């Protein structure tokens, strides 16, 4: 039973990454802008409620943005860095 559930979760995650690869890696300015738009859309939907089930998605996108900014502008070290 658990193996089937795990397989379903992994398949769903793979499908999600195919539709929105920026959840795993932001590789360029276009992806970066898309990720910022996704954060804005999520914030409009869930606000600042960490108990909202989509909160973890927001955290994943923010982490991806942060990693991109550290790669592109390591000397700045904060959000909204432009390449």
Can you walk me through this structure?
The protein has 83 residues and is mainly α. The protein has one domain. It contains three helices and no strands. The chain has helices at residues 2-19, 29-46, 55-72. Helix 2 (29-46) runs antiparallel to helix 3 (55-72).
Mean pLDDT: 89
Radius of gyration: 15 Å
Major sheet size, sense and barrel closure: none
- SS-based class: mainly alpha
Number of helices: 3
Number of domains: 1
Q: What is the CA–CA distance across the termini?
A: 47 Å
Tell me the helix content: 55-70%
Total strand count, please? 0
Shape: globular
Give the amount of beta strand, in percent: under 5%
- Sketch the topology as an H/E string, one letter per element: HHH
Low-confidence stretches: none
